[in-house]
């Protein structure tokens, strides 16, 4: 199965390259970027300002520029931005390739704090210059580390308009492929001092932080169907008809309605599509507003993204069939067309009602205005419960009362027609505040309906049709003898939520310990029979095979250290920037290689897992200005770090070390160090291996330094030979 998905991924990548004119030698013929029906349709609807049609079509025929977003904690993101602007972009300013000046990447004017950029540099050009190749390697490595994300520019708009904060709860509907989801997660975790924002799920290993999963506060609905993607999905040119939008309208309206039901009063819902078609855009919003009977209203977000160019939503449109027949109102649609065309596809007929909707508050992004894809966004605010949702639902164990019949909206006639596809299929409460939801869920949990905190089926490796059964998620019992030694060894704060620790086994030794939020624990315990959980929790501890010899069987895991660190009150060593460079580039540096301050903190500690914390010095602006927390091991006379390779390279770059792509031997990467930035690390390349803990056999972390410093020759002699730690 993994091989199948990998091959499919390669095929899709190659297909994209082919469509952009960079495919296999003698590949498919170039698709003609013309569609007369498309042009006729949008010229008739007048969504493009007068006099701009030619620019609009010309932009659609051009390849979409590459855009990237700097991710992660805000303090770390600022360091990456500083590195990009003051190093890589500066090297490109006066660069010429094949006699032409290279276009330096530019920030997206509307994205806050210059954390998103776009460039027209192609892969072909990137290979023609050492400076460009270096820039390309930087982007590749930082993307693999999760510090830079490739994301289309217009896709970044919905999370910004959602205006999410750490205390919010978010439901991301229609979330594939996940770039907006990741962006939302980063917004929740912008402050690294907040270990567990009010979110529910932890999974994304590449992001490396807890993330939002479910519930009712802010909603982001993105529906991908379309013609706004012509610049990257070339097939749309030959396949486009109005039938796509006609078929999707009912589904989109049902999804948006369901989202509105789940939203609490005062919450914000963002509806967005990559379609320019009002049948998928304004028609869905108008119908949703009409059936809400005042419970929803469009928010005016015109001033929330300064620099973004957009067109206001339209208030009048027509419906066209795939064969080019136009209809201006529902009454004119013949009965034979009622299964294809629905009354909700037309604008409201009442002028006062239409004006009160303020459809002009919707945003339509046209490709030629800022060299982007086409896009549509609408932001709705919930003022009260939806008219059919007036009572809270009955949870498990509560008596069920007869339900009132669902009220039909007069705007949705059903006589003589098929059932309205836009009518919601199910009804659920909205308007419950977060406290009510949490308390009701906890009551169910405390009723004892789930035993021993097991949140899944018993462990089994029996092969199913499409893979193996997942091991269960098992919460650590309150009286489990596993936890007290951990608590004592790391002097965990009394506020540490130990009830939120879980593992993936019900038998034998527990190898990995994961941590989730309180909200997610409730979801897992009470819904394990209704959903299949593939992955959750952030790994915070890993078992050492010989851990019992070091007072604690579990060492800290780098993946979850930023979440765990605020609770740890012991075994913390504050290190200097020079110490960090040595620790990340050498296997097991002896104490004497580190600063005297570091040695004085380490010498009295017992052997075992430790936290290495770097705090920036604001009086030295030329040094790294973001805090770093690393997992380490205090050996007999040395210290080593347990940090994955990509994360090591990331920190080294941020500290000014040039990490090249050259490999001197298998499994090693060279870091070029300028003279004077950090003195030569000396000629002792190894430490006593007896101080090393044996990592768990099923640990997925790449702990080896795999990095060497190729330092400029100094008074101490030449640079040391590189050494890679055994796996």
What do these coordinates show?
- With 727 residues, the chain is of the alpha+beta class.
- Among the domains are: 65-150; 154-382, Rossmann fold (3-Layer(aba) Sandwich); 474-562, no CATH class; 571-655, no CATH class.
- The strands form 9 sheets. Strands 7, 10, 11, 12, 13, 16 and 17 form a 7-stranded mixed beta sheet that branches.
- Strand 8 (201-202) and strand 9 form a beta hairpin.
- The longest helix has 20 residues, at 243-262.
- The two termini are 27 Å apart.
Proportion of residues in extended strands: 15-25%
- Kindly state the mean pLDDT as a whole number? 77
Largest sheet: 7 strands, mixed
Portion of residues in helices?
A: 25-40%
List low-confidence stretches.
Answer: 1-7, 17-27, 198-218, 400-450, 457-467, 661-669, 673-702, 706-727
The CATH class name of the domain at 154-382 reads Alpha Beta
The end-to-end span amounts to: 27 Å
> So, the CATH homologous superfamily of the domain at 154-382?
Vaccinia Virus protein VP39
CATH topology of the domain at 154-382: Rossmann fold
The number of helical elements comes to 20
Class by alpha and beta content: alpha+beta
Query: How many β-strands, per DSSP?
Result: 31
How would you classify the quaternary structure? Answer: single chain
Rg is 29 Å
- What is the name of the CATH architecture of the domain at 154-382? 3-Layer(aba) Sandwich
Task: Sum up the overall morphology in one term.
Answer: globular
